[in-house]
Amino acid sequence: MQQLAARDQAVSAAAFEAFVPVLRHPRCVNCHSSGDFPRQGDDGHRHTMNVRRGLEGQGVVGLKCSTCHQDHNLQGEHVPPGAPGWHLPAAREPMIWEGLNDRQLCELFKNPAANGHRSVDEIVQHMSTPLVLWGWHPGEGRAPVRMPENEFLAKVREWVSSGAACPGEGSSSQPASSPH
Questions:
Q1: Distance between CA 22 and CA 18 in Å, rounded?
Q2: Per-residue pLDDT at 170
Q3: Between 149-161 and 120-127, two packed helices, what is the crossing angle to 10 degrees?
Q4: Which residues pair with 45 in a beta bridge?
Q5: Residue 63, H or E segment
Q6: Contact present, 80 and 68 (Cβ < 8 Å)
Q7: What pLDDT is stored for residue 62 in this prediction?
Q8: CA–CA separation, 142 vs 55, rounded Å?
Q9: How many C-alpha atoms does 161 have within 13 Å on its Cβ side?
Q10: What is the mean pLDDT of residues 128-149?
């Protein structure tokens, strides 16, 4: 039984490591970066017009995300992209993963106090929302996420169904390194 648990843990951690490159892609990091503002572009530069997160992650009075971002991409390059529910994580749980190593990022995903009060099953649901899946259809002039969408979702589900283990869990030889 212990051997099965160790195998599941290894499978789960490997699944997380397989999809973590998607989380490091600008389509994800631009909304999950440090600071009280979104980033934009493949280079992750600070969002123009001094856009701020706001308490609920939807911008601040006078400059809400929905002022420019619609529920769909607009046609043309250099126009605001869009998806249903366009927003940043709320200020109380900003889900900042810029600078975290894989294990720290995995642990953040599993921590309801830091991930929007989601269970790991709800993380799977979130990863399947139009807002997240927009990363594969970002509109003209933006690089889409490279891993195929169906492969990403399969790896996320595999990570959870095999125990939601994090890289380095259960191994004293692989401690989590510092974020910088």
A1: 9
A2: 61
A3: 170
A4: 40
A5: strand 63-64
A6: yes
A7: 86
A8: 28
A9: 6
A10: 96
Residue 104's alpha-carbon distances to 100, 107, 109, 137, 169, in angstroms, are: 6, 5, 9, 28, 11
**CB–CB of 98/34 below 8 Å?**
yes
CA–CA gap between residue 126 and residue 9 (Å, rounded): 23
Q: Which amino acid is at 148?
A: P
Residue 35 vs residue 156, higher pLDDT: 156
Write the single-letter amino acid at 177.
S
Residue-range domain boundaries for the chain = 7-161
Tokens of 163: 């125990």
Burial (CB count <10 Å: 0-12, 13-18, 19+), residue 80: middle
| 2 — pLDDT class (breaks 50, 70, 90) | low
Q: Residue 70: beta bridge partners?
A: none
In sequence order, which residues have a C-beta less than 8 Å from that of residue 172 and are 6 or more positions away?
none
Strand partners, 40: 45
User: Three-state SS for 173?
Assistant: coil
What the block records as the tokens of 9 is: 């843990």
Total residue count of the chain as it appears in this document: 180
